């Protein structure tokens, strides 16, 4: 048996088209374009690539892109001052500070400084708390993109057994909250989990976000399970996921790397920025976003 390959690239481009159509409505109603500010500290090549593709996607959606590049040795207080200006700027609906930040900067201080209602990354603790308690807020882009792909395979997730591998604040924890809100039975696993394979073997849904190339093996997977690979690992063999390629012989559906979750992350960032602008302008949006 061979798994259905979940085409995240195609799904993302359709989502971006829906976002662009709704952006046009918000512009017509409010007289201004939604704006996304992206802050990049230092010049890590991978981060530069992401920031450039975010900027291109923002313009393609009909929104305004504000890019702020700061040198790697910028003082923490200078970055904080920039965040304060972006918080106060009415043209800015979304603020993204590219992570990781240089070691001399306290990431938590920067993230908690962002206005939660402009936090389109969903990293602020207020948004984490909103997600955990079922209040409206911003959900981190990668796990929300994963959920959209999963709902394409399983329109009703209720009662399914889901195993999340990885407990980061950016992917694993919010992924678990989203699946719980969809009434999955959620098992959170991590580096200290005993007999990980025994948990994975029960799962209808597996989300792998560990950052280890090919970590999840085919003989762990229940035949027919849906597998979401969040890994983006740069190896000599190119970009590889956290899931071994042979898992595709056992799973019912699987996301590829590249072309799976990665493109969804950027599309959801566009969606979150649109949602922010619509809220701030009092414009209601199509539910299908
Ligand atoms: N504040 C913040 N928010 C982020 O959302 C954020 C961040 N910091 N720091 C870095 C990570 C990484 N990230 C990706 C986005 C798109 C792809 C993506 O489109 N990947 C393509 C391949 C791209 C390639 O070839 O490198 C794919 O998987 O098909 C990957 C990774 C967002 N991040």
From TrEMBL:
GO terms for cellular component: cytosol. Coiled coil: none annotated. The keyword Lipid biosynthesis does not apply. Its EC number is 1.5.1.5, 3.5.4.9. CDD domains: NAD_bind_m-THF_DH_Cyclohyd. One of its GO terms (molecular function) is methenyltetrahydrofolate cyclohydrolase activity. Pfam families: THF_DHG_CYH, THF_DHG_CYH_C. Homodimer. Belongs to the tetrahydrofolate dehydrogenase/cyclohydrolase family. Catalyzes the oxidation of 5,10-methylenetetrahydrofolate to 5,10-methenyltetrahydrofolate and then the hydrolysis of 5,10-methenyltetrahydrofolate to 10-formyltetrahydrofolate. This is Bifunctional protein FolD. It comes from Sphingomonas palmae.
């Amino acid at each position: 048996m061979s798994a259905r390959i979940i085409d995240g690239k195609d799904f993302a481009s359709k989502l971006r088209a829906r976002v662009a159509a709704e952006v046009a409505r918000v512009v017509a109603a409010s007289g201004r374009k939604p704006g996304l500010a992206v802050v990049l500290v230092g010049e890590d090549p991978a981060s530069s690539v992401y920031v450039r593709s975010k900027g291109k996607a923002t313009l393609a959606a009909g929104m305004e892109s504000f890019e702020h590049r700061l040198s790697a040795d910028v003082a923490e207080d200078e970055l904080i001052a920039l965040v304060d200006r972006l918080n106060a700027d009415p043209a800015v609906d979304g603020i993204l500070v590219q992570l990781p930040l240089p070691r001399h900067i306290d990431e938590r201080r920067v993230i908690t400084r962002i206005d939660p209602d402009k936090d389109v990354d969903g990293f602020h603790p207020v948004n984490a708390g909103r997600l955990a308690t079922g209040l409206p807020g911003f959900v981190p882009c990668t796990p929300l993109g994963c959920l959209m792909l999963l709902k394409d395979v399983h329109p009703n997730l209720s009662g399914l057994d889901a195993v999340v591998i990885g407990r980061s604040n950016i992917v694993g924890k919010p992924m678990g909250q989203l699946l719980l809100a969809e009434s999955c039975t959620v098992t959170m696993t991590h580096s200290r989990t005993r007999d990980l394979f025994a948990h994975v073997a029960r799962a209808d849904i597996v989300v792998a976000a560990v950052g280890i190339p090919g970590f999840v093996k085919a003989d762990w997977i229940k035949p027919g399970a849906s597998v979401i690979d969040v890994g983006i690992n740069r190896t000599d063999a190119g970009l590889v996921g956290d899931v071994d390629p042979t898992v595709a012989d056992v799973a019912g559906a699987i996301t590829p790397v590249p072309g799976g979750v990665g493109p969804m992350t950027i599309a959801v960032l566009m969606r979150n920025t649109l949602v922010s602008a619509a809220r701030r302008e009092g414009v209601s949006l199509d539910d299908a976003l």
